[in-house]
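Dear support,

Our group has been running a series of protein-ligand predictions, and this particular one with methylmalonyl-coenzyme A is the one our PI (initials K.S.) wants archived with full inputs and outputs. We had some confusion internally about which version of the output was final, so please treat the block below as the authoritative record. The input we submitted was:
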Amino acid sequence: MFLNTIADHCRNQPDKLALQFIGGPPVAYGDLARSVNRTANYLLSLGIQPGDRVAVQLPKCLPFIYFHLAAMQIGAVFLPLNPAYPAAELRYFLADSGARLLIADAENQSKLDPITDALPDHRKTTYLHKPADSGANWLLDYSARRRYALPDDPDQTAMMLYTSGTTSRPKGAQITHGNLTANISALHQAWGWRADDVLLHALPVFHVHGLVVALHGALRAGATAILCPAFHAELTLEMLRSRRFTVFMGVPTMHRRLYQAAGGQRIDLSHMRLMTSGSDRLPDDLFFGYQETFNITLLERYGMTETGMNLSNPLHGQRRVGAVGFPLPGVSARIVDPGTDAPLPDGEVGEVQIKGNHVFKGYWQQPAKTAAAFTADGWLRTGDMGLRAPDGCFTLKGRAKDLIITGGLNVYPPEVELVLMQHPAITACAVIGCPDQEWGEQVIALIIPRPGPPPAAADIIAFCRQHLAAYKAPRRVVFVNEFPANALGKIQKAKLRESLCG
Ligand code: MCA
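Confirmed final output from the archive:
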């Protein structure tokens, strides 16, 4: 299992640099083992048992990583929470998951205490204080040592990540130790991870992309990860030029900003062994723009929270513009008719379905939704449409599900519509995504107001931001008198997109 591999690195190369935040202290593999062990002991001292959910809402910082690894090491379930979630969303995640423990930023105590006080399963919140200097050393003052064994059951849940849905509130995707191990081994092989790799890590750590693909990737290889607390294009480009790094991973919005930061100048980044793009489609102009400007061919790959990574363009060999590549080792992928689940011939567009040891074990306490996510013979329905070329290379062609991707983050329109319908001045609404060069798509709300003076668009946006993380709130509000509907009365969003997105 991959936690054992990391433990081996900690034993075999204790002095090798594992992690370092920009401007922060170096953390060698030996230090990492000690800090994670101390954190694991802290969790044990609180009575955290295998299977207990440990929620962590912290900015990107070392303790986030220590709690992440420590919780998994003692068999607890790590639940990362984006610091951008407002109280309403946070309450839902904590209540639904039944988290015993919350680790949070002390700055948020007055906001969090009233929420957690009302939750029956919640036992304790540990508040960490941000250090005054930028040393990023939020270390827990806890030193007892106890031995414990790493989990050895591949079906044991390691983490739970909330994903939204087209018909319901967010669901907790349970990702097992076996899933993580299978996926990170496949990526290790496919992307040729090496112990002398140095990853520049600029992604958030609350999602599969930054946490699993990037961070686990580097640790599994016994390599080094240099972490930026947040993404700044100019700073990142400056560092990428320095020749210190070999691997970088980003979402298209980040790559767009890096490309723009070059300001038309040619900057040779061909010393980078691997630069990947994912979480949303990589636009063709950016693929070519990167080749022209940076002398780099971005490697596009395809994954989802429920599976980790599924498909990837090759490390060696041709990376195809607009394509997401071939199944990773141990991954099976097929294209089917979404109505019948019958496989389609190469070249025909259908739903992408996935099978493999990396596929999650189900949604937390949602047996019906879990069953609906799989076909009778165990393929995961991704809700993404695509086709397979005769040589086995996959290309995505839109989505069967009602989903917007903005800046690499998924926004499910029904979730936003549910909030909008709580606004007293709204009779009906529809949320759609319109193409946007920087963000991929932008969230747009169409609204039929109640009779009387119409609400201000800014008020509606502010209302959404009170209830939802800012990236889910509409960027634009359009008032309409009616919606195009089909015979069943269902709003035809394709028509709305056609008339509005231009
Ligand atoms: C920030 N804002 C956004 C987004 N991010 N709005 C829409 N979509 C977003 N993704 C808002 C901020 O709240 C702010 O609003 C305004 O946009 C401008 O903020 P700015 O400072 O420009 O943005 P940023 O903080 O620099 O963030 C942009 C970002 C970030 C770096 C591209 O969104 C990001 O890190 N995206 C990566 C997401 C990711 O890791 N996805 C992986 C999911 P205001 O100022 O008005 O409050 S995992 C996944 O999808 C699967 C498994 C896979 O295959 O990888």
